[in-house]
Amino acid sequence: MKSRGFTLIELVITVAIVALLATAVVPSAQLVYQRERESQLRDALRTIRNAIDSYKFASDQGRIKLDMTQTGYPPDLSVLVDGVDDLKNPKEGKKVYFLRSVPRDPFYPGATTPAAETWNYRSYASPADDPQPGDDIYDVHSQSSRTGLNGVPYREW
């Protein structure tokens, strides 16, 4: 009588084939995951930078109260979410808002850190080749020390 089942050699060959297929799929999955996070970073940077530009435009139009020492750029990211009084709106206390919420840096490791703290800031007075925080926020960039698929470090995006 013949017994049914797999021989040890058949099982070893099957496991070897599955392992070979897995080694081909894992790098591809990692690449897809990194591309997705890079896309999220691009979108987050675009969103924040557009909000900063909108704030500056509103201040140039006289819609935001500024003193003589301010540049017209937001002092922090929370102002973009909390809003500022609109000086051109006839209704008292009407605010103008620039963001619904501050997006997170997708490459920041801490999930519990507030989104505004996941970014590095550049003030208006800071040179482009050495971005430093200051009294206002002129630009944001990632805190990640990793390099993108395009060869450019994320902090330079």
Q: How would you describe this protein?
A:
The protein has 157 residues and is mainly α. It contains two helices and four strands; from the N terminus they run H-H-E-E-E-E. The protein has helices spanning 8-60, 78-82, and strands at 84-85, 95-96, 119-122, 139-142. It has a two-stranded antiparallel ribbon. A two-stranded antiparallel ribbon has the order 3-4. The mean pLDDT is 91.
Give a brief outline of the structure.
The protein contains two helices and four strands. The chain is mainly α and 157 residues long. The strands form two sheets. A two-stranded antiparallel sheet has the order 1-2.
Draw up the topology in text:
Elements: H1 8-60, H2 78-82, E1 84-85, E2 95-96, E3 119-122, E4 139-142
Antiparallel strand pairs: 1-2, 3-4
Gyration radius, to the nearest Å? 25 Å
Shape: elongated
Q: Please tell me the overall pLDDT.
A: 91
N-to-C series of helices and strands: HHEEEE
Q: Helix amount, in percent?
A: 25-40%
Strand content: 5-15%
Gap between N and C termini, in Å? Answer: 70 Å
Q: Spans of 5+ residues with little confidence (pLDDT < 50)?
A: none
Main β-sheet description: 2 strands, antiparallel
Structural class: mainly alpha
Contiguous helical run count? 2
**DSSP strand count:** 4
